[in-house]
Amino acid sequence: MSNADAVADDLNEPQLEAVTHVDGPLLVFAGAGSGKTRVITYRIANLVATHSVPPYRILAVTFTNKAAGEMRERLERLLGPELARDLWVGTFHATCARLLRKHHQAAGLSPRFVIYDDADQRSLMDRIVKERDVDTDELPARTVLARIHALKQEAIAPDEVPRNSRRDDLVVSLYEEYDKRLRAADACDFDDLLLHVLRLVERPDPPPHERADDRTLAGVSIRALFRYVLVDEFQDTNAVQYRLVRALVRAHGNLAVVGDDDQSIYRWRGADVRNIRGFAKDFPGARVVKLEQNYRSTARIVRAALAVIGKSRERIAKELWTANDEGELVEVRSAVDERDEAQQVAAYVDARQAEGVARRDLAVLYRTNAQSRVLEEALRARRIPYRIVGGLRFFDRAEVKHLLAYLRLSANPRSDVDLVRIVNVPARGIGATTVDRVQQAARNHGLASLEAMREIARGKIEAGVAAAARKRLLAFVAIVDELVSAEAAGHPPSELAELALERSGYADHLREDGSDEAQTRAQNLGELVGSIREYEQAAEAAGERPSITGFLERTALISTVDEPRGQDPLARGGAWGDDVLTLMSVHAAKGLEFREVLITGLEEELFPFVRARDEDDALFGPSGLTRSEESLEEERRLAYVAITRARQRLLLLHAGHRTLFGQLRFGRPSRFLLDLPRADVKLSLPGTADVGPRSFSSRPERDLDRGPRLAWPDAPPREQPKAAREPGERYVERDEGADLRRGDRVRHKRFGVGRVIDVEEGAEPKIVAEFSGFGEMTILRRFLEPLP
DNA sequence: GCCCATCCTATTTTT
DNA sequence: TAGGATGGGC
Question: Which residues partner with A188 through β-bridges?
Answer without folding.
Answer: A115
